[in-house]
Design a protein that fits this description.
six-stranded mixed beta barrel, Cathepsin D, subunit A, domain 1, six-stranded antiparallel sheet, 2 domains, mainly beta, about 230 residues, 4 helices
Length: about 230
């Protein structure tokens, strides 16, 4: 599938409670969320990479007020994969994202676009798994079977509009993973039942966010992940 890339444009990022925020070309702060197939903005317009995108003002009843309340700062929109799929370098270590970044000189890891999500392979505790790369996830999550036998190292409270009441608490576990030829430990929790069931239907074993993104830059482009 051919995806027309944006003009290469760099944006300084702001990290607020583990969320990646940028100011778009119209001067409004937006959440960068590769874990969402679709985008929205309170004014119905997002401008990034020299292009203007007409988007809905909310998704499934979730709008900018909900995002602002849970992120902890004023956010006017969410940028999902319908826009970011054109190509985005996520470079948290250097405090930036770059839209329209080329794949030249990078290596594609086993990955694919799946119903608007970007998935790749990650070995977790010796098991080959498929995970979603989610820049909107301050906390990473895996299926409970992958943490069997481990003791919790803590807990976190997170939010998701699919959860009754909007928020939930999960225990956190630490375990070894292998990704793009590197071995390291990450911490992750368990997702609530409804989200877990939805991921199972996609054959997905987890959602990996800032735990991975803080370690190295990743490029999502041409229907895959590059490192």
């Amino acid at each position: 599938m051919y995806i027309k890339h944006m003009k290469m444009t760099e944006y300084k990022i702001e990290i607020v409670h583990g969320h990646i925020l940028v100011v778009d070309d119209r001067g409004s702060k937006v959440l960068i969320d590769t874990g969402s197939p679709l985008s929205f903005h309170s004014e119905g317009v997002i401008a990034l990479g020299g292009e203007t995108f007409n988007v809905p003002t909310s998704l499934m009843g979730t709008g900018s007020d909900y995002v602002s309340d849970n992120v902890g700062t004023d956010v006017y929109g969410l940028v999902g994969m319908d826009i970011l799929g054109k190509g985005i370098l996520i470079d948290v270590p250097h405090g930036r994202i770059v839209l329209g970044y080329p794949t030249v000189g990078l290596v594609r890891v086993p990955s694919q676009s799946l119903f608007g999500y970007m998935t790749d392979e990650m070995e977790i505790r010796g098991h080959k798994t498929k995970v979603i790369i989610d820049t909107g996830a301050p906390t990473s999550y895996v299926m409970s079977c992958l943490t069997e036998g481990l003791s919790s190292v803590g807990s976190v409270t997170d939010f998701n509009p699919m959860v009754p009441g909007g928020s939930f608490v999960t225990p956190i576990f630490e375990f070894p993973v292998s990704f793009a030829g590197q071995n390291f430990n990450i911490r992750a929790g368990h997702l609530p039942f409804l989200i877990r069931t939805s991921l199972s239907l996609l054959g997905v074993d987890g959602v990996i966010g800032m735990e991975l993104l803080q370690r190295q830059p990743l490029l999502i482009a041409d229907g895959g992940v590059w490192a």
